[in-house]
């Protein structure tokens, strides 16, 4: 083999390479190739580290104003190579949403709070009150608080005998129905304990210390756990009623979050999942499962369900939909997940990611305007077909063109974002054709937040059964929040009434029915 070789004077000459030269040349090429691969891997690892740092310490908001997007799309001044323009067709700038008028400042303190007045007179007046005449007063208000208190609710049932028939047996009133015979906690205490753990995120061990140190009442943690179990058992029929209502509309949003739980005999925690199912504008329910498999969805979505399931790109949802061949289930994608991935890549590829984010921002502006108008499904469907569909089609063309050029590595942040968007594209356009479907899955993700705050405090579920109890109570509390009612007032009232109710009366005490009945009673009282 003859290879060009350098002479000592620098001129090239055709000379056969020695075996040693061939070996060194091959090694040099391998080293250069390995160096290029290491540099590429180093770049990808730096991007991942930067992303992790931003997730840990950076702002979690994905909101970008037009000025930020324009700045991201500008090529860096120090770059010698011009950055190519994103192949996205120009879109007429959407009208900026009109600024809402400044709200008038309401009352500083609620008018319904009880008032405790304290009269303060000057020292001369207190000494000789008959020598002074009051000509007016000045009032200053402060907001005060008195901590909750325990009380002993004593039910006294007096016995009577007949005056006219002394031989008759004495009579006594029947003891009211209780959640559990000879149980110590009243409905108000049960509601307070449940609210403390699942709404205020206080573990039972912490509640035990609070009751002992601040109120002088010793309630062992084991007793508190049994009482929480008692409350969950009574609330389960309401939970089943909520679940039926959520899945009965033909459109649900589903997501899942990991939660650790104790497995007896293992000496360590295992990972379970709290699945969340929500209907926009309606209620929400949770389902506890010890795995994340697609078969878990069979326990969440009823067998007779037909309609749309909105979810993220987790493969279990596609496997579930394909497994329900007898029932047509359509999957709807989430644009928030797509936007999030491009948002994470904006620092490494500011111009390309900025241009794509700007187009997604146009989609969200359309939705914001529809929410301001309180548009129904028909109007949303018409407006989306006219304004959103062209943007979605241009986005797809841009992503396909960028992908075909091969400028971005599949492992890079922008490459991952493009692969995710194109992989989810059949589901991302579903919301355009169906006015019931939201643009993203944020409503169900917001329902997961209370559970995320809770597990940071109590760290893990006691066991698998405790996970089911938590799912029941979380469902009731979160449904109360969505209806704008006080969960404590609801739980106290319902736990008082449930022992005297039948299964046919359960629909009367769901959060939706309870809120409606309370509103009607308030209107009648006002009238």
Share of β-strand residues: 5-15%
What is the CA–CA distance across the termini?
105 Å
Helix/strand order, N-terminal first = EEHHHHHHEEEEHEHHHHHHHHHH
Low-pLDDT windows of residues? 76-94
Anisotropy-based shape: elongated
Structural class: alpha/beta
Give the % helix.
40-55%
Largest sheet: 5 strands, mixed
> What is the gyration radius calculated from CA atoms?
33 Å
* Chain-averaged pLDDT: 84
Total of helices: 17
Q: How do the strands of the widest beta sheet line up side by side?
A: 5-4-3-6-7
What is the total tally of β strands? Answer: 7
What would you say this structure looks like, in words?
The chain is of the alpha/beta class and 527 residues long. It has 17 helices and 7 strands. The protein has helices at 19-57, 66-73, 123-127, 187-198, 204-215, 221-246, 315-323, 335-344, 350-372, 377-405, 413-423, 425-428, 430-433, 442-458, 464-482, 487-497, 511-526, and strands at residues 2-6, 12-16, 251-262, 269-278, 284-289, 307-310, 329-332. The strands form 2 sheets. The chain has a 5-stranded mixed β-sheet with strand order 5-4-3-6-7, with helices on both faces. A two-stranded antiparallel sheet has the order 1-2. A hairpin with a 5-residue loop joins β1 (2-6) and β2 (12-16). α8 packs antiparallel against α9, α8 packs antiparallel against α11 (413-423) and α10 packs across α11 (413-423). The protein is elongated, with a radius of gyration of 33 Å. The N and C termini lie far apart (105 Å).
